[in-house]
Write a structure and sequence with these properties.
Blueprint: H1 5-15, H2 33-36, E1 59-62, H3 64-68, H4 75-80, E2 86-87, E3 104-105, E4 113-117, E5 120-121, E6 151-157, H5 162-165, E7 172-178, E8 185-194, E9 201-212, E10 216-227, E11 248-263, E12 266-282, E13 305-322, E14 328-345, E15 360-380, E16 389-405, H6 409-412, E17 418-422, E18 428-434, E19 451-467, E20 472-483, E21 487-499, E22 504-515, H7 519-523, E23 526-532, E24 535-541, H8 547-551, E25 560-571, E26 577-594, H9 602-610, E27 617-619, E28 621-642, E29 645-663, H10 668-677, H11 686-694, E30 699-709, E31 712-721, E32 724-726, E33 735-737, E34 740-751, E35 754-761, E36 795-803
Parallel strand pairs: 4-7, 24-27
Antiparallel strand pairs: 1-6, 2-3, 4-5, 6-7, 8-9, 8-36, 9-10, 10-11, 11-12, 12-13, 13-14, 14-15, 15-16, 16-19, 17-18, 19-20, 20-21, 21-22, 22-25, 23-24, 25-26, 26-28, 28-29, 29-30, 30-31, 31-34, 32-33, 34-35, 35-36
């Protein structure tokens, strides 16, 4: 069922008889040496003629063929299969995170990678990931809001770049370059389902290029699709009551990219997108005898569901040109907004008794970003330099807003109703307890949680880059930023490359970086049910200035600060072979993290001291961590021409290890609570330490082969996903999940302008290890949500594409 009108409108547009645009020259070939090494890059450099092979920092070029090589319509999923250091797990039963999943680069937090579109900063999502998923506590960019149909290529800079681009670029930069052709066209449709018989999905995407006279172009793209939910839950109490897997999703998006040059030396440009994602995800089943259920409403128990609608808008307009004395100018305005609503369905508010509604509007989150940016650069001839010196500088103003809107009163109401208590078997104990307040699975945002928050920042940067000799290039960048809510910070970067010969080059970088605390991390507040070792707790996420949070030791957040070092080897020993080996170290001080769920006596303390009832724990954001990440990336490409076609091989390997260097001592306020009740409370306990250090695979390897024979192409990718560990509150509850291999296959037949594909992702139907029984594990949920390749099994699909 298509629940949203935008999906209908997009599909109607896709079906219209328009001239669909072809991808620009150079993007239709397989990812061989010719289409990657010689590609001019726009990420990580201010010069206009730097190629991939000449880059001073490691950078990957992901082509549309890479993105279309599997059955997924999601940009983040496609990138995770093409970039060895990018992780994109598929969490389930994690509230809004089911709808807006976070991606990680080099094992760091999702909001420690900066996302650009056409070189301009992309806004973050309104969601903050709070529950048991990788990226807990982050509010990253929603990569899947960018239609794949609109993308010419993706440049992934695997290096710290805060001095060049500002906050968030600690792990690296993902720059999405949009298509910009004046003519031609393409349309791609796909459909498939999992081998288990669920998860049916279809997707349709198209793009078109339109010439605006001789002086410009307009490139349009649209994409829409539907995905049914998957379910890998096992029987509980003799029946399968739970749903555990991907949610049901309706998605639709449109984008444009345009340029117009009315006179020589001046170009006006604009691009933007709108995406709407309608997601229905599942909570934990409340069985009949659960104290949170009212048998008069749900005699057999109930499965509460969260209905999220994410609306994502982006708009950029600018002008670039050059002056009479050869200064290049780029002045732009950038607007971005993400609005996320929460509707809770198939639920109840136990404290309202038998008259409780079964659906509630629980509130909404919204982020808005406005950016004014001026970039200036010029190449200067310097007598002792082999090539011109590029001098670039610029200034930026950024205004950010975060709004939290309350839900309807019944979604958060707590009437104080007393009900008969039942034990774990559903038997009456003879005691009376206070009924749980708020909508089950996701209590609505309360008026006291709601608010409108904003800040401004100003920044200035200077960037110098030159080829000192024909073999030696050097870059130097510096940046300073001033924030209205926490102060100022300055960063710098030094990068160099030396070519010993045409076949061997060495590159190195050293930089400092930062990430400003997001407005969501500073001001989000809500109450939700969390499972800790299989036991449900109602946990409040306090904003850091809440009196209750301060009583538990919360302090104002400061910016994260990082120090990055990289050393790489670039090898081109023979024609058509390209290998890079890049080692890195990233140290992050004062890392912002969501504290452990502080339970035990905390509920009694909050009730006795602060009058906050029916809460069994609390948590807040803190700068209590220092971490160090060390790793190595190896990427190789080889193209082997044959008499009747070619074989193109691409391989990648990443090893990544994060260690905790420091955990700040508990603040006196938290120690007071612990001493008064005679317990141990830690802001960062075993569970979160494990999520940081072992929650993602230590290593990942993939090998892709594209074999072209006449009109046939076979695309095969084998991936080894390394082991990871879920930590419990004690060592006895830890479990390590072993490494797994997956195989993706696609058979393509090319007929004139048509391409027909029959493919399968994970064709060997591999699953992660089963979660072990006992030790608090819910055995009817058999797989870990931290699995880097999910737990859906094989997915088989068909695809048809027409380009002209």
């Amino acid at each position: 069922m298509i629940r949203r009108p935008l999906a209908i409108a997009v599909l109607a547009a896709l079906a219209a008889p328009v001239a669909f645009a072809q991808s620009p020259a150079g993007t239709e070939a397989s990812p061989t040496r010719a289409t990657t090494l010689d590609t001019l890059i726009v990420t990580g450099t201010r010069t206009s003629d730097r190629t991939v092979a000449e880059s001073q920092s490691p950078i990957d070029i992901i082509t549309p063929e890479n993105l279309q090589a599997t059955g997924t319509p999601e940009l983040a999923t496609a990138l995770s299969r093409a970039v060895p250091s990018l992780n994109f797990p598929r969490p389930a039963i994690t509230d809004g995170t089911d709808a807006v999943r976070p991606a990680q680069l080099r094992g760091l937090a999702p909001d420690q990678v900066l996302v650009l579109v056409n070189g301009k900063r992309r806004h973050t999502t309104a969601l903050i990931n709070l529950n048991g998923s990788q990226g807990r506590g982050s509010s990253p960019v929603d990569l899947n809001a960018i239609p794949i149909a609109a993308i010419e290529r993706v440049e992934v800079l695997r290096d710290g770049a805060a001095a060049q681009y500002g906050s968030d670029a600690i792990a690296g930069v993902i720059n999405v370059v949009l298509k910009g052709s004046r003519e031609g066209g393409s349309i791609v449709g796909s459909a498939g389902q999992t081998s288990a018989g669920d998860g049916e999905q279809w997707n349709l995407g198209a793009d078109t290029g339109i010439a605006l006279g001789e002086a410009g172009f307009l490139h349009l793209a649209a994409q829409g699709g539907h995905q049914d939910n998957t379910n890998r839950a096992r029987p509980f109490n003799g029946v399968v009551e739970q749903r555990y897997g991907d949610p049901e999703v309706e998605s639709a998006g449109v984008s444009y990219n345009t340029e117009f040059s009315p006179a020589e030396g001046i170009t006006f440009y604009s691009f933007g997108s709108y995406n709407e994602r309608d997601v229905l995800s599942n909570g934990y089943f409340r069985w009949r005898g659960d104290n949170r259920n009212d048998p008069t409403i749900y005699p057999d128990g109930f499965l509460p569901q969260i209905h999220n609608v994410s609306e994502d808008r982006a708009f950029v307009a600018g002008m670039r040109g050059f002056t009479a004395n050869d200064w290049n100018l780029d002045l732009s305005y950038n607007y971005g907004q993400n609005h996320l609503t929460f509707d809770i369905e198939n639920t109840l508010n136990r404290s309202l008794g038998g008259t409780s509604p079964t659906a509630f509007y629980a509130g909404a989150l919204e982020t808005t970003q406005n950016v004014l940016n001026l970039d200036v650069n010029r190449a200067f001839d310097v007598g002792w330099l082999a090539y011109p010196l590029t001098v670039a500088f610029g200034a930026e103003w950024r205004g950010e807003k975060f709004n939290l809107s309350p839900g309807e009163p019944g979604s958060y109401a707590d009437t104080g109703l007393m009900i008969p208590e039942r034990d774990g078997n559903g038997n009456l104990t003879g005691n009376m307890i206070r009924a749980a307040g708020g909508a089950q699975v996701f209590a609505g945002f309360r008026p006291g949680d709601a608010g409108r928050f904003n800040r401004e920042s100003y920044s200035f940067y200077l960037d110098l880059e030159a080829d000192i000799t024909e073999r030696f290039s050097l870059g130097l960048a510096g940046r300073t930023e001033e924030y209205s809510d926490f102060g100022s910070t300055s960063t710098g970067k030094l990068s160099a490359r030396f070519a010993f010969s045409d076949a061997v080059a060495l590159r190195a970088t050293a930089s400092t970086g930062f990430r400003a605390p997001s407005l969501q991390q500073q001001h989000f507040q809500s109450t939700a049910t969390n499972f800790i070792d299989g036991v449900p707790f109602d946990i409040v996420t306090f904003r850091v200035d809440n009196p209750a949070a301060i009583a538990l030791g919360a302090e104002p957040l400061q910016a994260e600060e990082s120090t990055n070092f990289g050393l790489g080897l670039v090898l081109q020993p023979i024609d058509n072979l390209y290998v890079t080996v890049d080692a890195y170290q990233i140290e992050i001080d004062d890392r912002i993290y969501l504290s452990e769920n502080l339970t035990g006596p905390v509920g009694d303390y909050l009730a006795d001291v602060h009058g906050i009832f029916n809460v069994q724990g609390g948590r807040y954001f803190t700068n209590a961590l220092d971490t160090r990440t060390r790793g190595i990336d190896v990427v190789g490409r080889y193209s082997w021409p044959t008499a009747s076609g070619s074989v193109d091989l691409t391989g990648g390997y990443n090893y990544n290890k994060t260690d905790i260097q420091r955990i700040a001592a508990n603040p006196p306020a938290l120690e007071t609570v612990a001493d008064e009740y005679g317990v141990v409370l830690n802001r960062i306990g075993r569970v979160e330490q494990g999520r940081i250090t072992r929650g993602t695979p230590r290593d990942k390897f993939f090998l892709n082969s594209i074999w072209t024979l006449g009109n046939f192409t076979v695309d095969a990718t084998a991936t080894r996903w390394g082991e990871f560990t879920n930590f419990g509150t004690t060592e006895a509850l830890d479990q390590t999940y072993g490494a797994k291999w997956t195989l993706d296959l696609a058979f393509n037949y090319h007929l004139d302008n048509w391409t027909f594909t029959l493919g399968g992702d994970n064709v060997l139907n591999e699953y992660p290890d089963l979660s072990e029984a006992g030790a608090g594990t819910r055995t009817w949920l058999p797989y870990s949500t931290q699995s880097p390749f999910g737990f859906n099994g094989a997915y088989v699909y068909g695809k048809a594409a027409y380009r002209w």
